[in-house]
Task: structure prediction
Amino acid sequence: NQGKLWGGRFASGPSPELEALSRSTHFDWRLTRYDLAGSHAHARALGAAGLLTSDDEAALHAGLDALARRHEAGELHPDPSDEDVHGALERLLLEEVGPELGGRLRAGRSRNDQIATLLRSYLLDHSLVLSRLLLDLVTALAEQARAHLGAVMPGRTHLQHAQPVLLSHHLLAHAWPLLRDVDRLADWRRRTAAEAPYGGGALAGNSLGLDADLVARELGFAHGPTNSIDATSSRDSAAEFAYVCAQAGVDLSRLAEDVILWSTHEFGFVRLHDSWSTGSSIMPQKKNPDIAELARGKAGRVVGNLTGLLTTLKALPLAYNRDLQEDKEPVFDSVDTLEVLLPAVTGLVATLEFDTARMAALAPQGFSLATDVAEWLVREGTPFRVAHELAGACVRRCEELGCGLDELTDEQLAEISPALTPRVREVLTVEGSVASRDGRGGTAPVRVAEQLEELSVAVERA
Ligand code: ARG
Result:
């Protein structure tokens, strides 16, 4: 059992089949930097507890630094016989500083409190990367919104024409959820950085007088474990992180679906930039929205990562169980997926070319100003129930005549109701319609301009 972290009570080494199953270095090796940082902090705690002389402690720090340098130079590798990153790094440290000194470092810690801490550290760092990438996309959406202030489009519910809205309003409706994802990550960081599991040992805490708060602070956490069982066996922090990633994936997929629809021949709302779209190997004319489709597809993957992790955690007895080793791949995959996806979606959005003339032409179609007629009648004193009926009757008449609401003659309007005087025409334009929706959060240009400012301030603060 050379190179293993256990073995004293075993008469034979692990079978190759067990080793193959058990090994996690192919995915946990990415935690090397964090494992070494944990070991530095732990060496300090051992020194402070009088379990290492200052010379020994210094030699351990030097050995760990040497490993870090070799790692950065790409010269440090796990061995097939290493079970996990912790075992591999202990083996390498022993080679570096000798078995006598190297063998002292493990006192009072377990891979259980180590891995729980390392995973938090890794995710904390990547949450900052993800926040930055999400903010880049929010900024790209805001820039498009600013560049098209005033442009109108058909607003839809049930994918049917509903009421005209500003293109900027619609684009910002994709920005706010992404900004909330950034806020969710910040909120998650506050909880996750509060406590480091280090010092929890295997499950019951340590008996060596180690200062867990010292270790926690060294690693950037507020304090050590409050409950060693909880600290070593809970993974709700990882699950919550996976949820935010899944939510961001879903938010991206909804934006992506709009881009996919908008770029169809039938919609014709946007043209994709050549550098941010793809062609077909057989159809020479094709220009495909692959980035958006991959965003839509990868949303399934990040949702799956959350589902898989929660399923692993469900009904696990306390405290640590080896099942928990399955916590890492899903969150690593969500990190990797979003870190490659977000910059591409940002480029796609930043380079979209909108056909605002076409959007404006389509905005009043499908009788999308019928609500404006009803609300005009309400302002003139008609009860809304009646106004709704009358506006509906206008639509029916238009369908019979094959014309638009604004094309009904004064006589045709008066036939439907004397309340429908020619003045109703003042709301029968798209510009009049959007300008009238000036309540808080509405699509009126003044409100959308305010909204854009509000978003910029929120981005600055995030
Ligand atoms: N590699 C394990 C994990 O990722 C940590 C090792 C714990 N092993 C154990 N036998 N207690 O969770």
